[in-house]
Structures are given as C-alpha cells and as structure tokens.
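Exercise (ungraded).
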Amino acid sequence: MNSNPDIPVTVIGLGRMGQALARAFLKAGHPTTVWNRTASKAEQLAAEGARRAPAVADALRASPLTIVCVTDYQAMRALLDASDVELAGTTLVNLTSGDSAQAREAARWAGRRGARYLDGAIMAVPPAIGTPEAVILHSGPRSDFEAHKPALDALGTVTHLGADHGLASLYDVAGLAMMWSVLNAWLQGTALLRTAGVDAATYAPFARRIAAGVAEWLPGYAEQIDSGSFPAEVSDLETDARAMAHLIEESEAVGVNAELPRLIKAMADRSIAAGHGAEQYPVLIEEFARPGDA
Ligand code: NAP
C-alpha cells in the first residue's frame, strides 16, 4: 500500500470509479494528470491538485503509466483509437470491467499499437479505493506489473494473477459467482425460516457460521478437483441428492420458491445418472465445466 509518490500517473475516465482512482493517486502524492469526456468531472480533482489534460493524447503523453477506467471496452477503444493518440512506449492499465476475451483482444490491440498493457479488475466500490480493503487484480506480463506496482500501490491491495491477460476478468466473474451463490443460498434459507416467524436478522448469524464452515471445505475439495479423484470421504452425491429433495419438498410445502433447489438437484441427478452417485460433491465440477441446457 505504500506507493512511490514521485511517479507521474494519468487517469482517463472520471466516472465514479475513475475519480476515486485519481483521488487516491493525488492523496498518495503522485503528480496526476486526468482527462474525461465530460470535462466538468475533472474540476473538483483539479482543485485538489490534478493537472487537466486538454485532450486524450496530451493525457497519455504526461505520464509513463495511464490508468483507463471507462464504462466498457468499446468506450476505451473509441477513445484510444483516435488517430492523434500515440500509444507506443506507454503502459496502459485498463481497469474497465469486461470479459476475458475482451481483455485478451485489448492486449493484442495494445501490442499492435506499441503499448505495454495490463488488464485489471477492481473488486471494490469507489469509497474503498486507496485503502487496503480495495483489492485490485491485474493480469499481463509480470515485469510490467512489477515496474508499475510502486504507483499502483496507491490504489489499494494490488495483486498480479499471471501473464494471461484474461485472468483478471475471469477472477472478477468467478468472484461474482461466489457472491451471488452465497447470497442466494442465504435468501432461500431466510424465505424458509420466515414462514415460521423467524426474521432475517435472527437467521443471519447462523447462516454466516454455515457459510464460514463450508468455506473451510474448499481447499480439500479443490485437491479432489485438481486430482480428478472424488472419493466419498464424508458423504456421497446420492446422499446429498436426497437432502436436496428435502429442501425442494420443504420449499414447496411452505410455499416458497423452489427454482434454485430444483436446479441444483437437476445437476446432481445428471451427475448421478452419469455414474457419479458414490463420489463426493465436487465431482459436480464435471457438470459445471460444460455448457448447460439453459
Ligand atoms: P460511471 O460513473 O458511469 O463512469 C463511466 C465513465 O466512462 C465516465 O468517465 C464516462 O465519461 C466514460 N465513458 C463512457 N463511455 C465513453 C465513451 N464512449 N467515450 C469516453 N468516455 C466514456 O462508471 P464507473 O462506476 O466509474 O465505472 C467505470 C468502470 O469501473 C466500469 O467498467 C465499472 O464496471 C468498473 N467498476 C465500477 C465499480 C463501482 O462500484 N462504481 C466497481 C468495480 C468496477 P462521461 O463522464 O463523459 O460520461
């Protein structure tokens, strides 16, 4: 988190997130150049010490490192493909959200333009930027990440995931899958318990302990997935599928939504039909690893 304040940086895109990024650089003492399509969004940052570039090309020239944070990759390309924009020799860190294919294509595009390129994903909200709670993932050449880490450190807890430019986006969506799955599971349980007069606040600490307990299983289950061997050490999929049936029956009986439990059981049933009933739960990776029916 201790950045080197001598390094000049540029931030292109001053929406909610871009402003937070620029402000974090300023607070850490970096000479910070900013540019935004709607120029008025740079006013407050200029009052705080940022230098306003008159055009994108000037913004890029001002620093060896440019952070881009706009709505999407199309917007980034629309900005940087302009004929007067020189990218050769600069390093772009693109913190715009997108998918892994867009990230890899952007890396090829930047390479053709002579720029060094890191793709990034911000796992934080704007107010957290500049604090250790802001986790910012990067992928691309490690040497480029290491070269610019002394500046990037101003933004939060910055991490390099690997040379494949698509990794930051993949981790980003994998995190979303985890977040929504945990929240949906909690909502399912909360809906069930409310039918018996138990409010969400009463169930929340109980659910939290379950989520934390399940999280403890992940390293061991990951070993099974990586080795491709799923011995039923604590339970087998047949047993789990019977418990899933209870969840569906209970949900239907008390009149709450059973779509999610039915989906989970359908996947387990397919795996059992494929001969995996005597194996342990993570064997379902084979169901997750192929396109589904929807
Ligand atoms: P935002 O407040 O809506 O800002 C969007 C930015 O993109 C503005 O600077 C906007 O310029 C610019 N832009 C859009 N289209 C453009 C174009 N065609 N040409 C030039 N500039 C263009 O969004 P944000 O919250 O800052 O999000 C920016 C990125 O950060 C997104 O990819 C988002 O997914 C990611 N992110 C955001 C959060 C969050 O909590 N906000 C968290 C993680 C990741 P104008 O001001 O001129 O419209």
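Further reading is listed at the end of the chapter. For now, observe: The pocket of NAP is lined by residues 13-18, 36-38, 41, 69-71, 75, 78-79, 96-97, 122, 125-126 (CB under 6 Å). The beta strands are 9-12, 32-35, 51-52, 65-68, 91-94, 116-123, 135-139, 157-160.
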